[in-house]
Amino acid sequence: MALMNLDEGRMPLTSHLTELRVRVIRALIAFGLAFAVCYYFSEEIFSFLQIPLRKVLPANGTLAVTSLAEGFLTHLRVGAIAAFFVASPASFYQ
User: Fold this and answer.
1) N or C: which end of the chain has fewer CB within 10 A?
2) How far apart are CA 89 and CA 92, in angstroms?
3) What would the pLDDT profile of 19-41 be if each residue is shown by its tens digit?
4) CB-CB contact of 92 with 30 (8 Å)
5) What single DSSP character describes residue 67?
6) Model-level pTM?
7) Taking the C-alpha atoms of 74, 80, 81 and 86 in order, what is their torsion angle to the nearest 10 degrees?
8) What sections of 1-94 are H helices per DSSP?
């Protein structure tokens, strides 16, 4: 068994920080791309998520927005949460 030199696997702190920065940027790019796609399909995703709720609503029951920005923010949140799940393999790889 050959002995390894301990200095072969060592990097200075600045190299570690540079690599960390590159990996974080790649993960954020993956999230951004996934968010763009998921936000485009947020209406379909939200409709899919409503299926269990609509099954238990009364016959004439409807969903309502209670504030001015809630409709927009709901689709924004749905897109962001779906993007988190879609981009997680790429982020975990990094």
Assistant:
1) N
2) 5
3) 999 999 999 999 999 999 999 99
4) no
5) S
6) 0.76
7) 140
8) 13-40, 42-56, 70-93
